[in-house]
């Protein structure tokens, strides 16, 4: 995988080496009655119980590839740092792209995940208020976007001093 998996709604989302994102249902035993509540599988069977339930690829989502940091927004959408297009994709539960944030560049609101001669790297996470934070790796900064995708602010530059980054490849939100 290219990034840490995320868990939401009983599914595990994994960005795979081929550029796709797969959602797996973990530890659930199917029941013949769809209205019945599924029961958890015994712990020893969880690994064997992983079943792909949905796959997002460039056929379904044009431009998807090199998916890195992912998170689930408070509204249930999947947030993906997409290295192929230098965008953050906001994907609905049904796989439809709700919005694309960024695009290649160095201006505020633009992103660049690929440094010359290297694979793209970048990450995205979402705060409880829906603000999307992006590790804009090739621009050596972090950018913040409103839930609707509008640019809010950025900080950082190349270097080793306070407020500078050498290789910002992912970002996470603390409890405060």
Report on the architecture of this protein:
Strand 9 (87-91) and strand 10 form a beta hairpin. Helix content is 0%, strand content 36%. It is mainly beta and 176 residues long. The relative contact order is 0.13. It contains no helices and 14 strands. It has strands at residues 6-8, 11-15, 21-25, 28-29, 39-40, 51-56, 67-72, 78-82, 87-91, 97-102, 123-126, 132-136, 141-145, 151-155. The strands form four sheets. It has a four-stranded antiparallel sheet, with no helix packed on it. Strands 7-8-9-10 form a four-stranded antiparallel sheet, with no helix packed on it. Residues 28-48 have low confidence and may be disordered. The two termini are 29 Å apart.
What is the share of helical residues? under 10%
Helix run count: 0
> Based on the structure, what is the oligomeric state of the protein chains?
single chain
**Beta-sheet strand percentage?**
35-45%
**How would you write the strand order of the largest sheet?**
1-2-3-6
Question: Strands, helices and their partners?
Answer:
Elements: E1 6-8, E2 11-15, E3 21-25, E4 28-29, E5 39-40, E6 51-56, E7 67-72, E8 78-82, E9 87-91, E10 97-102, E11 123-126, E12 132-136, E13 141-145, E14 151-155
Antiparallel strand pairs: 1-2, 2-3, 3-6, 4-5, 7-8, 8-9, 9-10, 11-12, 12-13, 13-14
């Amino acid at each position: 995988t290219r990034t840490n998996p995320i868990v939401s709604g009983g599914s595990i989302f994994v960005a795979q080496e081929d550029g796709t994102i797969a959602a797996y249902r973990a530890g659930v035993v199917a029941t013949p009655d769809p209205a019945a509540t599924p029961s958890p599988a015994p712990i020893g069977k969880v690994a064997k119980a992983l079943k792909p339930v949905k796959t997002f690829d460039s056929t379904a989502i044009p431009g998807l590839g090199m998916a890195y940091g992912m998170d689930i927004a408070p509204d249930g959408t999947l947030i993906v740092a997409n290295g192929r297009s230098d965008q953050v994709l906001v994907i609905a539960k049904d796989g439809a792209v709700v919005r694309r944030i960024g695009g290649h560049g160095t201006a505020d609101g633009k992103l660049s995940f690929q440094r010359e001669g290297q694979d793209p790297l970048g990450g995205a996470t979402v705060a409880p208020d829906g603000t999307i934070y992006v590790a804009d790796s090739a621009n050596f900064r972090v950018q913040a976007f409103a839930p609707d995708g509008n640019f809010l602010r950025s900080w950082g530059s190349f270097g080793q001093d306070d407020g500078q980054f050498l290789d910002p490849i992912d970002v996470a939100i603390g409890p405060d």
